[in-house]
Specification:
Layout lengths: L10 H12 L2 H13 L3 H29 L3 H8 L6 H36 L5 H9 L2 H20 L2 H28 L4 H9 L3 H4 L9 H15 L6 H7 L7 H33 L13 H12 L5 H37 L6 H22 L8 H5 L7 H4 L1 H29 L2 H6 L8 H30 L3 H20 L3 H5 L1
The protein binds phenylalanine.
Length: about 500
């Protein structure tokens, strides 16, 4: 039956698909705005360090577990661990929850593309704020575009691993890259673009010039950068594990991981270059004071940038269409990996029963389930339409972000709780329960004496779990409010508790 399991057509096809999963809204929207909010350069350095010491390690681990077991997350974790067999469920529920808002954001991006096309054709101009408000308070439109987005993803994933996902990425990724370069050239040739470069690359510049009121403390930057890095690399979400499970034994997992991490980070930086100088240039030309620019924060993509394009003269909307089209490709290439991860479990189950032809049906059901949760998020319109969690819970007055709208709620649960927790648990499992040997064998460094094997072992045993506990605390504190000490205490207890749970009572396996 194993012979009937899907596989990639080629290593380059796998790489483009994995890069496609990684490159998404997280790179083009999240990275620039979080970098903006966290004051530019410091964020960048911490991000890069985390990508090497944590991201790369988790990437290698997930690919190895996937390829070794040739199973989707739920069954893969069952096979490798006695104690942590349930992590696979976290890695399947989280992508399902992420799809609830990823598809809605994909729908918004389509609406902006349509808007810019209309501007191009009819010569109207729409400001960012007006357009965004109009989109948010129109639940019907949001739902329709969300459905279109889900249907596109469904059709691609129904096409299969090499016949759908790989094919889409082989065309989509190069196209995205070319479009990004076009936008960067435009952005960097705008007046005062240099100010954007300084913002990004000169340490302390954003605070000194008043773009942000004060430098965030290093722990919050760690939380933000760590969460962002994980989300952006599609880690601890089952996606990379699932993609790894379709990869052939011949391919080099370490090299592939380095390429994926490097490409994703490069695209995030390029997206920063496309977005930040343009946004700052537009604001300076309009006499906006640095402190009032919306460089840091989620409005960047849908408000600030729409204004940038609307004010570029006649040709502006053309850049708008190109930009939102590239964001759309990025969103689709990520969403299909999430959808595949959720569906793969049931596809594998059917395969085990000898039923080889059920992908289309399973993906249809998964899409319908995603549609149900996505309609709630779409209708909610970021809390604009009075159905957000706080209203339903009957809480009035100021509420923490997590309860203010459904998107934040789903995002906090999946991206800020399940993801760091999942990564921490996976590292503890590999480092202290099963031992790093299995992963190292799978990646071909089984004799433990290579530089990589030593680096991997130290990172997976110590660095990843500890960093993940900080990321968990930092991101929960950022989203749920309350006292920082409380969140650090909770994360610390979880870390120590699971550390002991992983390490105690399995001497035999550790010594093997
Ligand atoms: N990496 C994607 C992004 O940057 C999101 C994603 C997360 C995709 C987890 C798959 C799994 O937007």
């Amino acid at each position: 039956m194993e012979n009937n399991r899907s596989s990639w057509g080629s290593n380059i096809g796998f790489l483009l698909a994995a890069i496609g999963s990684a490159v998404g809204l997280g790179n083009i929207w999240g990275f620039p705005h979080k970098m903006g909010k966290s004051g530019g350069f410091t964020f960048l350095i911490i991000y890069l360090l985390l990508a090497v010491f944590v991201g790369l390690i988790v990437m290698v681990s997930e690919l190895a577990i996937g390829r070794k077991t040739k199973l989707s997350p739920i069954d893969a974790y069952k096979q490798v661990s006695k104690k942590f067999k349930w992590i696979g469920w976290l890695a399947t529920i989280a992508p399902f929850m992420i799809m609830s808002f990823y598809t809605v954001l994909g729908g918004y991006v389509m609406q902006y593309m349509a808007l810019n096309l209309a501007e191009l054709s009819f010569g109207i101009t729409a400001t960012g704020m007006d357009s965004f408000v109009a989109i948010l308070v129109n639940p019907f439109g949001a739902v329709v575009f969300t459905i279109i987005f889900i249907v596109i993803c469904m059709l691609i994933v129904q096409g299969g691993v090499s016949g759908g996902i790989e094919k889409f990425n082989k065309v989509g990724m190069p196209a995205l890259f070319v479009m990004l370069i076009v936008i960067i050239i435009r952005s960097l040739t705008l007046p005062n673009a240099v100010e954007g470069l300084k913002f990004m690359f000169i340490p302390g510049y954003s605070v000194a010039k008043g773009y942000i009121a004060e430098a965030p403390d290093i722990i919050s930057v760690l939380g933000t950068a760590g969460g962002q890095m994980f989300f952006s690399l599609s880690l601890a979400m089952g996606a990379i594990l699932t993609y790894g499970s379709y990869l052939s034994k011949e391919e080099n997992l370490v090299k592939n991981s380095v390429i994926i991490v490097a490409a994703d980070t490069l695209i995030a930086l390029l997206a920063g270059l496309a977005v930040i100088p343009a946004a700052i240039s537009y604001n300076i030309s309009n006499g906006v004071a640095p402190g009032d620019m919306m460089i840091g924060g989620p409005k960047l993509l849908f408000v600030t940038l729409q204004d940038v394009f609307a004010n570029m003269g006649k040709i502006g909307p053309l850049f708008g269409v190109i930009f939102y089209a590239l964001v759309l490709i990025a969103a689709i290439s990520s969403a299909i990996s999430l959808m595949e991860t959720v569906g793969a479990h049931w596809i594998d189950k059917d395969l085990a029963k000898g039923e080889t032809d059920t992908r289309k049906k399973i993906i249809l059901i998964v899409s319908l389930l995603i549609l149900v949760e996505a309609v709630v998020v779409a209708w909610d319109g970021l809390g604009s339409n009075n159905i957000h969690p706080a209203v339903l819970l009957g809480i009035s007055g100021p509420v923490p972000d997590v309860l203010a709208d459904w998107l934040d709620f789903m995002d906090t649960f999946s991206e800020y709780l399940l993801m760091p927790l999942g990564a921490m648990l996976m590292a503890l499992m590999i480092g202290w329960e099963t031992g790093p040997k299995d992963v190292l064998d799978e990646v071909g460094h089984g004799n433990h004496s290579t530089g990589f094997a030593k680096f991997y072992t130290v990172c997976v045993k110590f660095i990843v779990p500890i960093v993940m506990a900080f990321v968990l605390a930092g991101s929960l504190r950022g989203n749920c409010g309350g006292s920082p000490a409380l969140w650090y205490a909770i994360s610390g207890v979880l870390l120590v508790g699971f550390w002991i749970f992983a390490a105690v009572g399995n001497k035999k396996t550790a010594e093997e």
